Amino acid sequence: MSLTRKLSALTAGAVALALALAGCGGSDDQSGGSLEEVNFGYIADYNGTSLLAIADDQKLWQKHGLKANTKVFTNGPLQIQALGTGDLDFGYIGPGAFWLPASGQAKVVAINTLGNADRVIARSGTSSIDQLRGKTVGVPEGTSGDMILTLALKKAGMTKADVKVVNMDASTIVSAFASKKIDAAGFWYPAIATIKKQVPNLTELAKNSDFESQVSFPTAFVAGNDVVSGEKAKTEKTIAVLRDAMAYRSANMDKSIELTAEMLSVPVDQVKADAGNVKVLSVDELDAKTKDGTVDKWLNGMADYFVEAGKLKSKVDPKTYYTGELFTTAAAK
């Protein structure tokens, strides 16, 4: 079965459940004026949450005439599915899900950070990727965990056919690793830190920086195709919120960590450790890298990987799915 068909089968119910159970937050209009509502998905880590936490604390939604209804998800593909059904207007994805907008299922409206949180982890005694032959490896399919596993196997001269891959969501991987139901996983921090509390001697066999000469690992904010094409004002306002929050984050890293911890109801030290695996990009850097083609280079590098991994049929021009001009011109709004 193709990955796309698997995702459709696995996520149809999960999206509904996530929307029903998701923690919701947002901004109330203190002045009593009318605010346009925007439904925004995120992942509960520093990459996926920090800008939303800042926007709420600094009242950036109200500043730009919006009221945000935020919903937490466990991964990017679920949010792409929700964008397609209209349950979300905007969402957040890690690098492993970029093939979905590249295949036309959403638009990337803002690059966020460069990530270094992904790992291939294994039980104590496994010291190399080739020792995973025939072993059971859990991975959230279509995510950055899937991406790091595929890259690591290739570097070792292997493919997924050489291991027993089991598709699992993030919470299942944590419990499955602790209960010894899987031997290894393609996964990410901060969830790996949770596993380490129960399995302190696990080994890290591969990480993002092992492949930085081949591919970068950007994270991004995405929007539904219909939102970008049919709701230009809402899109521009939302990008303006993200830009303001980016500027605040760059200037106030410690505070951004505190606000993220508060929004997620987790210890500050946990978020600080998570943020240590993130390269934060300022608005000025993102504008410059968008205009000079650096972002396109990142996206083309990932597209090469996705084509080779069978997730894309062919490489497409980043301009078909990254609305870079919309992002940079927001500075003049």
Helix/strand layout:
Blueprint (H helix, E strand, L loop, with lengths): L2 H19 L14 E8 L2 H12 L2 H4 L2 E8 L2 H10 L4 E4 L5 H4 L4 E9 L2 E5 L13 E4 L4 H12 L8 E4 L2 H9 L5 E5 L2 H8 L4 E5 L10 E6 L1 H6 L1 H20 L1 H12 L3 H8 L2 E3 L2 H9 L2 H15 L15 H6 L4
Parallel strand pairs: 1-2, 6-7, 6-8
Antiparallel strand pairs: 3-10, 4-10, 4-11, 5-8, 5-9
Helix pairs in contact: 1-4, 2-10, 2-11, 7-8, 11-12
Textual characterization of the structure:
The protein is an alpha/beta fold. The chain has helices at residues 3-21, 46-57, 60-63, 76-85, 99-102, 144-155, 170-178, 191-198, 225-230, 232-251, 253-264, 268-275, 283-291, 294-308, 324-329, and strands at 36-43, 66-73, 90-93, 107-115, 118-122, 136-139, 164-167, 184-188, 203-207, 218-223, 278-280. The strands form three sheets. The chain has a five-stranded mixed sheet. The chain has a four-stranded antiparallel sheet with strand order 3-10-4-11, sandwiched between helices. The longest helix has 20 residues, at 232-251. The termini are far apart. The relative contact order is 0.17. This is Aliphatic sulfonate ABC transporter substrate-binding protein. Residues 1-22 form the signal peptide. It comes from Kribbella sp. HUAS MG21. It is found in: Periplasm.
